[in-house]
Amino acid sequence: MSAGAGAMSPDRTIEPREVPLGGLRGLLVHRTLPSKEIPLIGAWCFLDHFGPTDHRMQVLPHPHTGLQTVTWPLVGRIRHRDSLGSDLVLEPGELNLMTSGDGVSHSEFSEGEPGPMHGLQLWVALPDHRRGGPAAFEHHPDLPEVEGPGWSGVVLAGSFAGATSKATVHTPLVGVELRLEPGRHEFDLDPAFEHGVLAVDDAVTVAGRSVPHRSLQYLAPGRARLALEVERPTIVLLIGGEPFEEEIVMWWNFIGRSHEEITAAREDWEAHEPRYGHVDGHDGQVIPAPPMPHVRLRPRVRRA
């Protein structure tokens, strides 16, 4: 059974778990995807919420396969360097999107004087027709903005409220940052999509259900309208997409289709194979791959 195959899971709230990013002393993030019950929402397969915090991001070069990374800072600046030669500082309100293809590596470090940092990083699983081939990087400083009575939004990916992002996607997706004033707000959704709503900086009521701060509310396909209610000015993240029907095996920073494919990706990283390139500016330092688990990796499945 694929990650999206079988009966769709009913609506449910996914609680975050705390994970140190970049090692045991790394930046603490709150992760809601993947979860045991819901491995993906559309092709969105990973969601980290970091901050607000004064802890700096310091993530040495590391590899990726079979996915796109999507980085969206709310507060603080992040320097991105990758094996394609990209070297830029990402500002709040700007989007970085990196497509791994068959292999890429990158680093992310806080930039500038110490100060608060807050933001989101997501991964998108790539379909078979794009998960191989060359890597690519996009920086989007001017994303489309949308607004309505008591709310405004930025379309990170896909289309929402009549606006479409220029960020490249390879399956039907949507990603939107919404800033809500106190009250009730209703939005049109694509009923073919499953969706998730992340309570970024306060609790939010999603379709009548109270969702705590940092939690993610999963919404099954078939919903054409969504009501959100907040008691104070609040940011939420709305993601969604057509259920992803391809099997994925996901481990560490790799997405593949089999245990053997993941093992090969790890071995190539440890052997410094050319597929991952080289990230300048770190004197050869990289994050080593952890040992493979003692059990066979299996495709992630949805648990109804």
TrEMBL record:
One of its GO terms (molecular function) is metal ion binding. Pfam families: Pirin, Pirin_C. Gene3D superfamilies: Jelly Rolls (2.60.120.10). Residues 31-124 form the Pirin N-terminal domain. It comes from the Bacteria. Its cofactor is Fe cation. Residues 176-271 form the Pirin C-terminal domain. Keywords: Iron, Metal-binding. Binds 1 Fe cation per subunit. The keyword Signal does not apply. The keyword Coiled coil does not apply. Fe cation binds at residues 62, 64, 106, 108. Belongs to the pirin family. This is Pirin.
